[in-house]
Every structure is written in structure tokens, then in C-alpha cells.
Amino acid sequence: MQTFPHFEPMFPRDQWVLPQILEHHAAVRPDAPFLQWTDAGAPLSFAEVNARANQLAHGFASLGVAKGDKVAIFLPNCLEYPLIWFALNKLGAAEVTIGDSFKGQFLRHPLKLSEVRWIVTTPELSHRVAEVEADLADLDGVILLDDEEGEADTLPAGFARVACHPFARLQSDNRANPEVTVSSRDLASVLFTSGTTGPSKAVLMSHRQIYFFAEEIIQVCQLTQDDVYLTGFPFFHANAQLESIYPALVMGIRCVLYRKFSASDWIGRIRRSQATVTNLLGATMAFVNAQPAQDNDRDHRLRCIFAAPVPDKLCAAISERYGIEAITTGFGQTEISMPFLSPWGEPIPPGACGVLLDQWFDVAIADPESGEAFEGPATGELLVRPKVPGVISDGFLGMPEKTIEAWRDLWFHTGDAVRRDAQGWYYFVDRLKDTLRRRGENISSFEVEDVVRSHPAIAECAVVGVPADDDGGEDEVMVFVVAIEGERVEPSDLIEFCKPRMPAFAVPRFIEVIAELPKTPSEKVKKGDLRSRGVTETTWDRLAARPE
Asked: pTM here?
């Protein structure tokens, strides 16, 4: 079976430590551009980024932040975000990334679970922290990032106990590297799973794991010193941090940062920034392709897009329209990095997400009930374990029972149904909890979505199972669809579109056209919300619409 080509990482394994890598580049290429805030901003060099991170690190240390502590970054995308991340890692402290849309219980849960000592946020977001302050026993204080500098310490309305300081409090004059020993085994980041089927879990990510994420992007995109990376995805998410910013750091290249993703200005940003590599996620590919075609769509330097998943028709359309050399892909989770990647220069079979990195991982396709592994081509639950220490996470913070449940029988159980073909390519089938069963047939919601999404009027969709009318305990297929701006989705037309493209038992019975899908801050569809909503008076029913 085919596997991913073996490779030698950019740095030896004992140097898979973010502060070491930043300090290395600050020494060997001090004036080379690294972080640039939008294409209109002046880039900070590696030496400047290192010096600013050092100043912040000494500022955090003056507040008592030390090795092993956890500090939450509760900010929108901004240039300070990666500088704070780097500063904390220089002290041996861990960043805890919190989506800036979180509030109430959605904010209380990750802050309480991760036992953060400090939170960096904005005055606009601070009232949300104040609302949950009483439940945060470990919290010492809040740093308020604002445009104003040098303000006196204040206690914003709503806070009862914790200390609050302006961001200027962190601006130390000391630009020297902190004298803290940080190893590749030390905790670097706490990232949260999306919580699509339950409370979000805090994933413990060591320095060696976050480095490996970055190394995988370097390999799958074949990064060189001539590349420029671009991202506008949320910085609290692995895609922006570990699959955009950190690969640029490891490679020693420029990374252009934006507050948000923009489909309408996607190619404009690519062109103005001179970016050569960027990432796309799910529906963002459809949003980009839906933009009006321009005569200069191929006037740019972009050579590679890393995308997951890779809808076949969209990939072909984007490659042809924009003249992209390669669209690469992979499959992974925050907990396990990416055990599958697509080899450079090879055509990707329709629906495939990559081949195994057998240099680094063992995988098994197993019966989800018995745990027995299948040989050869098979479909089942994906089980993963590392061949090299540290390339997967160290477990879940504060949830020992979830750690034991996931890491059992010497494997990490992903909860994902995956198919392996005879050539060694792997295909994501579904989350096990998203698999539907209708009329005795198992249905992949992912595969139904892939067909529905290819309809020319549909921007994105989500398929869920709703209880069937009979007593068989099975499902009916329901699809929620979002139309492309300016388009109209006729349910009956969509059914006719689906019929020749999928088995009869998989054709949706119920269709609901909605303005937008409910999503987690990391842009994963909250299917639990859709299942709870289910069939309503506005739902189109294929059986009810059928002529007598």
C-alpha cells in the first residue's frame, strides 16, 4: 500500500521547542520579515518579533506567571495574539486559546476547566469574563488589550475580585531572551475541541506536538524559503496557529495575518500580499468559487492551497480558474495531528484525504463495537498511535475519564469512521455519531452532504438523521441548506438533483432552507442543534409533496 514519503524534519527532535526556533531565526536571519498585519502593514522581522515576545515574557513574569502556568488568550485576531503566545511559551507557560465569540457557559466551561491564572482580553470582551469571574477560583487577574497605553490600573465594572491591568503593564524594557529552560515535552498549548457532540475537551499539546503539526504542513505544501503564507482564520484554532503561523516560523518565512476570512477579497489579499500558500476550510472553498470571475483571476503568486476536506468539483474549478499548481489535503484531529496527507504532485482520488505517514504513526481500521482491526481495504473506526513520542497529544485536561475512554487498548479511538482502499488511500466517511440508518442501510451524512453541496445554488449544507415515522428506531434523512447569495433553492429541484447521484435510500426526505448553519467558533457545524430543531412547520417534506 502507498504511504507518504519519509522526510527529515527541519529541526532535530530535541529542538522541537517554539522559543528555540524563534530565537534561532532571530539569530540567523534577524532582518528577514516574519509577521505582517494585513497586506497594508509593515512586517515585523524575526529579530523584532523575538524582542517583542521577550518584552512581553518579562512583563508576564513580573505578574508572577511562571513555567507550568496557563494563561488564556481571549482576543479577536490581532498582531498581539501570536506575540502573546510566543511570550508565554518562552516562560514555559501554556497558552489557552478561547474563541472571541464565547460567552456565558460557553466561556465559563473552558476557563474553569483549564484553571487559567491570567486572561488577556479586550475591554469590549471583559464584561463577559466578569460575568463568570465567581466560578474562576484560580484566576489572579485580567490583562486588557487596548489602543491606549500607559493607563493606570483599573477595575472594569462587574469585576469583584481579580486584578486588572492595561496591556502596557506587560511592556517590559527587557528585550533579552528569558533564562527559562523549556523542553519539547513541556506543555505549550491547550486547544479546545469543537464540542459538537458534548462539552468541549481541553487538549494538552506539548511543544513537540505543535511543532509536528507545523512540520506536516511544510511537507505537504513543500514549503521553501521563497514562500509567503497567508491566513485570516481564527487564531484560537489549530488551522491558523499550527498550520499557518507556526509553519512560517519553522520555515523562516513571512506570514500575513488578517482579522477575518474574506471570500470577496480572497484573491485581492493573495495578490496584494504576494502570498504563495494559504489554507481553505470546507465551505470557504465554495464561497471563494462563488465570487464573480475576473479577467485577472490568475494574476497572483499563489501556488498551493492546503484544504480539508477537498470537494472534487470545487477543487477542479478553483485550480482551473485561479491556475493553482497544487491543492493538497490531509486528515487529523487536534488530539492526533495529521496521520494522513496527500503526497505532493500525485492526483488525489475523489473523496480521499491522504495516505498514511507510516514513518510516524500506526493506524488501524476497527470494528467500533469490538475494537477488532480489519485487514486490507475496510471501513470502520480509525484508531491511531504514535511511532515517535509526542506527535499526538498528552490527553485531556481535567477530564481523566475522557482521556481513559479515548486512549484505550493501546490506541487513540478517534470516533471517526474511515475507509481504506486497496492502494492505501484513506477516506473520511463520517463521525460515528453522525452515521444514519434508514431502511436497514447505513448512510454517511458526509457523502450525502458532498452531493448536495455540489448543487450550483447551494453554498453549504448539513445532513442529520431525524426519527422515522415508524417504530423501527431508524432515521429519515434531513438536510439543512444555505443558498449561495442571489440564488434560490427549490427543494423539489434539489431532490431531482440528488436522485441520480446517490442511492435511493440516501435521498433526503426533509429539506430546510436556512440563512446560516449553527457553528462552533472553529467553524464546525453544530449538528446537535440541528437534530434538536428537527422537522418544523417550515420544513419541506418529500413524501407530503409527492403527487397522489
From this structure: 0.85
